[in-house]
Amino acid sequence: MKVLIINPPWPGKGYGTRSQNRIIKHRSDKYLQYPIFLAYSAAQLQAGGHTVAYIDSVIQDLDMPATLENAHRINPDVIFMETTTPSIISDYDSLEQLKAATGARILVGGPHATYFHTQVLEECPAIDVVIRHEFDTKIATVVSHLDDLSGVAGITYRDDAGIVDNGDGEYTRDLDTVPFPDRETIPWHWYLEAWYSRRPFMNMMTARGCPYHCAFCLWPQSMYGHKQRFRSVENVIAELKQLVARYGLREVNIDDGTFTTNKKRVVDFCERLSLERLDLIWTCNGRVDNLDDEMLSAMKASGCKMIRLGVESGSQTVLDKIHKGLTLKQIEDGVKRVKKHGIQALGGFMFGFPYDSRESVEQTIAFAKRLSPDQVQFSINMCYPGTSLYEYAVKEDLLLARDFSEFDMTHGPVVKTMDMEREELEHILARAYREFYFRPQFILQTLQHLKDMDELRRTFRSLLSLLKTIKLHR
């Protein structure tokens, strides 16, 4: 069959992408993450004997009429779309129009569709099948069995008798059996992160699942589970060697939920990467409580440029309430340790938890300044459906959002906080970014790290992105 994978136009201001986002929000620029699960889907569909086409209307600057024209020309038998909470109302409209234009069977996936798997079928008659949780490892089987889906686990679908729930299914245990992402059908060069230093730059995943239970974190709870499944180091190195040989890869972002959980595996990976002499720099997600000097030394020696660290809050009370499992002292020590080894630290901070107060917001901004990581990401907690925090907010009647379109981080918090009106946090991101980045201490710290033209260009590009972000949230 001919399958069209599609990302239709994004509703509202700014730019958005439905794939690969743990924190789904509008951006002020087009530095959008590579949709690696879509690339995995394309590879597995082709391995199953299907042909695959791709449209990303956001990246390609296509409005809905142009999107429909392109889809009609492709003439697919099946259309697959990854949906998100803030775009779901627009997604329904796009799918209705795509169905009318092509007559294709419509498949959807993603956290929102997984959580509301029956509801989305009821609300959008165009949708035929919901592929729940990790859709990429199921999609080829679903497409191959569209005439009889009764034996396919992990889906909810529509048939003549109504809506049928086939249960959650199981996760793929041996990730080495999964084909490498198809970076041609899902073009790798369309996507970048604002903080890249070298090109060609790409994303990859070496594991799925995250063993931690942060109440706000979407992917482990709705997409790939808490049990971590690892690709072998040999399999990861084979993909990197292929990317270097085929595309001249120079920088890679390892987008595992938490890359640093297994010290032996991390050190083995670093030693093998150094041995292969691939001349790569790389970035990953980590946690301060599993980074020690031996691991960090090996990471630095193998080209690790930056580690993204989830800090979330400067209030110990908030950290405990969201089940972060860290103390402020651990976070402070961990950031210092990363920077001591010459690796950049990116700190992630969030506002708008149900447990937040005016005091905790000020504590978080002050803590970010005191830690002074090399980069920061400030976000508003969106309490996405599929997380335990959403369940808590519903149970306690804390939701403020009138509909899901307000879960895009441009309307302020979506849940009640301890003592703040929603409007008080509507522009908190602009304030936090401004106060953090425009400090003399941070400017001096940044200048001291400008060691080559790659970093100079990255810093200038990040500054432009920062100014656009502040304008978007002002």
Report on the structure:
The structure is a single chain. With 474 residues, the protein is α/β, with parallel strands linked by helices. It has 2 domains: 2-165, Cobalamin-binding domain (Rossmann fold); 194-473, pyruvate-formate lyase- activating enzyme, CATH 3.80.30. The chain has 17 helices and 15 strands. The strands form 3 sheets. A 7-stranded mixed β-sheet has the order 2-1-3-4-5-6-7, sandwiched between helices. The protein has a 6-stranded parallel β-sheet with strand order 8-11-12-13-14-15. Strands 9-10 form a two-stranded antiparallel sheet. Helix 15 (428-437) runs antiparallel to helix 17 (453-473).
How would you briefly describe this protein structure?
This protein has helices at 36-47, 64-74, 88-102, 111-115, 117-123, 139-144, 218-224, 233-247, 263-276, 293-301, 316-321, 328-340, 358-371, 388-395, 428-437, 440-448, 453-473; strands spanning 2-7, 51-56, 78-82, 105-109, 129-131, 155-159, 162-165, 201-204, 207-208, 229-230, 251-254, 281-286, 304-312, 344-351, 375-380. A hairpin with a 2-residue loop joins β6 and β7 (162-165).
